[in-house]
Amino acid sequence: MTSKILVVEDTQKDFDFLIKTLENEKFIIARSPDGKNFLELMEKENPDLIILDLILPETDGFELCKIIRSEERFLNTPILFFSSSINMDNKLLGLQLGASDFLAKNCDRRELIIKIKNLLNAKRRYDDALRLSVVDSLTHVYNRRYFQHRLRDEFERGRRYDRDLCCLIIDVDKFKEVNDTLGHPMGDKVLKSIADILRSNIRAADVLCRYGGDEFGLLLPETNFQGAYVAAERVWSKVEKTNLIAGENLISISLSCGISSLVEGGAMGMDELITQADVALYKAKRAGRNQISFYGRK
């Protein structure tokens, strides 16, 4: 997989030096020339490594380092300070703030490449280990623990920037009957099939998890009720066309879904946002299943 590097560098000559040095390494490189709207760019690019200059027009690398480390999802993203102002005091302060390594701008190109590769390899190993701890072993989507972590991040971000966030709780209709009549292996096949459909019909920024035995959770950042309905309908149309083979029979699958919105529901905390989605889900199931219900709407 190609690694993505975000470079925060205001001097064109120094940025060109980085581009020239890394041109044969097949990295994807994005640039923030001044640190403005830095957090939004981080969230958009989700880089594997950040190269920070210390001296910037309206801020400095130390302040940006603090911003990065204040966001849980970027706690383990390596930060390489690349500056002409590398001295012991700066190194010590940078390390205290969470920097991973330092390199002077007059460095040997080979040293720069080696340090970048070392940081990327370390992050890759960490990500692989983390993935094993946060991914559901059956469906290969995230587990509930990771979902709760991301829900906290997205909820706080939505409140901070006054942006919407929709939470979906999705239940496989009559799943117990599948297990009881066709056996647990068939039930597992149903869950894996649903997970595959969900995963292939959401955005990279969305967060999908196996929330419970036959329930899935889905977070849609910066999405209102209308956008959430479009996303849910896209999944429903795929599910309706899906039939699974059980012996000599074909079985069809249907889903019920409850949707809550941070803006419209007015949830005061992330637990309340989940509760609202659950309430909407129960409403959908009481109304006959195989449908989508919104919290706070008829």
Structure notes:
With 298 residues, this protein is an alpha/beta fold. The protein has 2 domains: 4-134, Response regulator (Rossmann fold, 3-Layer(aba) Sandwich); 144-294, Alpha-Beta Plaits (2-Layer Sandwich). 48% of the residues lie in helices and 20% in strands. The protein is built from 11 helices and 12 strands. The strands form 3 sheets. A 5-stranded parallel beta sheet has the order 2-1-3-4-5, with helices on both faces. It has a 5-stranded mixed beta sheet with strand order 7-8-6-11-12, with helices on both faces. It has a two-stranded antiparallel sheet with strand order 9-10. β9 and β10 (249-252) form a beta hairpin. The longest helix has 26 residues, at 109-134. The radius of gyration is 23 Å and the shape is elongated.
Which helices and strands appear, and what pairs or packs with what?
Blueprint: E1 4-8, H1 12-22, E2 28-32, H2 38-45, E3 49-52, H3 61-70, E4 79-83, H4 88-97, E5 101-104, H5 109-134, H6 144-161, E6 165-172, H7 175-182, H8 184-199, E7 207-210, E8 215-221, H9 225-240, E9 243-246, E10 249-252, E11 255-261, H10 262-265, H11 270-286, E12 292-294
Parallel strand pairs: 1-2, 1-3, 3-4, 4-5, 11-12
Antiparallel strand pairs: 6-8, 6-11, 7-8, 9-10
Helix pairs in contact: 7-8
